[in-house]
Amino acid sequence: MRPQTPSSGTNALVIGGLVLALALVLTGFNLKTAFPRLEWHDLAQRAREGDLLAAIAFYSALPRIAVAMLCGAGLALCGTMYQQVLGNPLAEPSTLGVSSGAYLAVSTLSWLLPGLGMPERILIAMAGAGLAMALVLILAWGHGLSVLALSLSGLTLNLVFGSLASIIITFHRDGMVSLSFWGSGALRQNDWRAAETLVFTLFPAIAALVPVTRSLSLFSVGDETMSGLGVSVRTFRLMTLALATWIAAVIVACVGIVSFVGLTAPWLAHLFGARRMTERLLVSAMVGTALLLATDQLLVAFGPMAQSIPAGSLTALVGAPVLLWILRKPRAAQPAAAASASIFSVPRPSIIPVVLPLAMFGMAAAMMIGRDAHGWHILDYDTLAKVLPWRWPRVLGSAAAGAALGIAGSGLQRLTGNPMASPEVLGVSSGAVLGALLAMFVASPDLPVTQDIGAVVGSAVVVALLALLARQGRFAAGHVLMVGIGLGTVLSAISSAFALLPDPRFQILQLWIVGSTDGISPFSAVLAAIVATAGFAAACLLRRWQAMLQLGAPFAAAAGVTVGRAQIGMLMLVSVLCAIATLIVGPLSFIGLMAPHLAEILGGRRVVPHLVLTTALGALVMVLADWLGRNLLFPYEVPAGLLATFVGGPYYFWLLHKRAV
């Protein structure tokens, strides 16, 4: 531990003050540019009298600045408290699922009870945030509230809650466009209500924090020492968590989800030299204020197009390097082979002859059985011939995507020696989405294959980055998961920001991100089927690599496998499969997690039988999800990717709860 020097705390305060001053200078420059001839004295009075320029400045520009400063400071304090109490450098409202829980609660009640006022919204957000925090603690409690368990629980809960909120907005998009924009952390204001709400709710929380700052610092010395000093550790921890959750919920109720400010600000405060608890809180608050204010003011400075991007999404770009830096080394390494043992130790006979015909029957039934305004029915030959041109691409594309995700998930689990690895969990699917989005800017609309190439490149970059960071932790199972989920969270936030741009190329983006299979073309379906078939053949040819890598890199090297070449080959295969599947069903489905486990339960032990079962089960589950999404809530349609997430998300939580992390 670094010795405390007398000047380090002062230096941190000075640096934090300078950073805040720079943000304020940028703010002043923007105000001067936007209102060059405005007289600032008696601004409020002239705004009330109908002066248009004064009204814009007083009711829009100034409240926006105030809200950015208050939210930045509040999120920084949240992150500092979470990290100190939980001993987790990755803890902040978005990584713990607290922000997404509050957002889901507000979205749901806004749908059911339109016209909610700010007091009701705050109470609802508090309930959702509290529920999310409770779920994270319950899931991680069996693992001693370890850094890994907390991070995995929170980040995965964030994905599931975000999917649920996406369904609500997808079903009622016409009436909830503003809610979608708000949920991404928009700081635009039309009055002072949000700023006043933040002041009257955050200041009491900060006042309650001041007298316990010294006790808060005791978490650094351990629970036993705190108990010896007469502190009720459990009570104080829960009270501090409740206080931080309250602040996060209020911020979500006012402006939506602002990602990674609570992670970045405490890290920068520590980098600047803040060590004592009081210094960390003060410097974090200053840096958080400066970070969010500067981010928002940069968007203002870049003009109307940039202003359409919510500041809360853009902070993910700032938080990404910090997250990767924190994750560059594992906190506790474990051999990959230690995590590679099957969770199902009872051998079972293979049922491949049953599963393969079942998958084919499922595809046929999905095309023939359906629901309309008159109820359920089985199509006759003439009707089937009429609807087949629309149905077969959807069924074939869903089956191919599910099969590709199953193969990719099986490969990742063997490569990392981690049964909880999958393309969705490790951020590979999110990388494919972002790559395809970026390809939209440079590609001609007449060349749809360019989007496919962009998805492959995006997933390959993520897989390469994942491998680079995981190699530093010797492919420790838990470290790989944390790196992957962190990458996926950052990339998803960036993709969500693209979805809100006023560009016609992104009109179908939201449906694609949530996994809608409605627009699958015959070309895309056939391409996905070809890639999935080739991927299956390649995975079978690489069966020796997979069998050896599952036992760990040292064992594989001793058995004569060129480990580096084998890892690169498997990563390339996973990248291609994941990219093509993501273009069909979006970045979230958890098929890549569930299919390999189902295959193992049904008797798949050796590589090739396991791949056969994984491919068939992945295709069957995805076709079933698409068929249920099309018929379950007719005439509404649930995107297949989201429907699969409902099953895969709880299964992941169960797996996390059962396994020693």
Automatic annotation (TrEMBL):
GO annotation terms (biological process): siderophore-iron import into cell
Transcription regulation among keywords: no
Transmembrane segments: 12-31, 52-82, 94-113, 122-141, 147-171, 241-269, 281-302, 308-327, 351-370, 390-412, 424-443, 449-468, 480-500, 520-542, 549-568, 574-595, 607-628, 634-655
Localization: Cell membrane
Top-rank taxon: Bacteria
NCBIfam families per UniProt: PRK10577.1-2 (NF007866)
PANTHER family: FE(3+) DICITRATE TRANSPORT SYSTEM PERMEASE PROTEIN FECD-RELATED, FERRIC ENTEROBACTIN TRANSPORT SYSTEM PERMEASE PROTEIN
Family: Belongs to the binding-protein-dependent transport system permease family. FecCD subfamily.
Protein name: Fe(3+)-hydroxamate ABC transporter permease FhuB
Organism of origin: Rhizobium lusitanum
Gene that this polypeptide is encoded by: fhuB
